[in-house]
Write a structure and sequence with these properties.
By secondary structure, the protein is an alpha+beta fold. It has helices spanning 5-13, 24-43, 139-158, 182-196; strands at 49-57, 64-66, 72-83, 86-89, 95-98, 103-106, 126-134, 163-166, 171-174. It is elongated, with a radius of gyration of 23 Å. It starts with a helix and ends in a 9-residue tail after the last helix.
């Protein structure tokens, strides 16, 4: 379960920061429309339950293929689209799934030590159906989502609170105890990134 609005407000109370100016709807929208999509984009993983997806991939002429989403729960079907209504279905027993990396490796059978380059080169010539995601969101991801939500809230509050001073030449804003919270925001971002790093890979789908 991802952090609730109550969880987020209670976290901010630990910093003695009031969130009275924000509605529950604003916090939920920022969490669901910005923070969670960002986390899932940078990790290529889905933390909001298990889903099924059918996607087309361009064959790379190699013995492996990187799927767009992970972790892979189950590989349902792979079809090679040959044009028109013609297609060939690959035997899934010949595919090894590296679930956490979202990688498919093809081989003749599981007893053989070498792999065959069966993902024939082409433009969107491979149709793959698979399920992916987590049935339960990992605790460290929940914590990262919490930190990023709070960072967003502090940015919003900081831009709309604080004092100001009028000089002969200009109006200068100076932030007090309810100001920009920049140090806290930077610290939360660093902690969130540290929690997300183990779920990231250098592989691009």
């Amino acid at each position: 379960m991802i952090p609730t609005v109550i969880d987020i407000r209670e976290f901010l109370e630990g910093y003695c920061i009031s969130t009275d100016i924000l509605s529950d709807g604003w916090i939920e929208k920022r969490r669901d429309a910005f923070v969670i999509p960002y986390v899932e984009r940078v990790t290529r993983q889905h933390f909001s339950g298990i889903q099924s997806k059918t996607e087309y991939y361009s064959g790379n002429g190699k013995n492996y293929l990187v799927l767009n989403r992970k972790p892979i729960v189950a590989l349902t079907e792979i079809r090679y689209v040959l044009g028109g209504s013609n297609f060939t279905i690959l035997n899934l027993q010949n595919i090894e799934v590296v679930a956490n990396e979202g990688i498919l490796k093809a081989k003749r059978n599981y007893e053989e030590a070498y792999y065959l380059p069966v993902f024939a080169r082409g433009d969107y010539n491979i149709k793959i159906t698979y399920t992916y995601g987590y049935s339960d969101c990992p605790e460290d991801i929940k914590e990262a989502v919490m930190y990023l939500c709070v960072e967003q809230i502090l940015g919003f509050i900081g831009a709309r609170t604080g004092g100001g001073s009028l000089t002969m030449q200009s109006y200068g804003r100076n932030y007090g105890s309810r100001g920009k919270y920049q140090d806290i925001r930077n610290d939360l971002s660093r902690q969130a990134y540290a929690l997300l790093s183990p779920y990231m890979t250098s592989v691009v789908g």
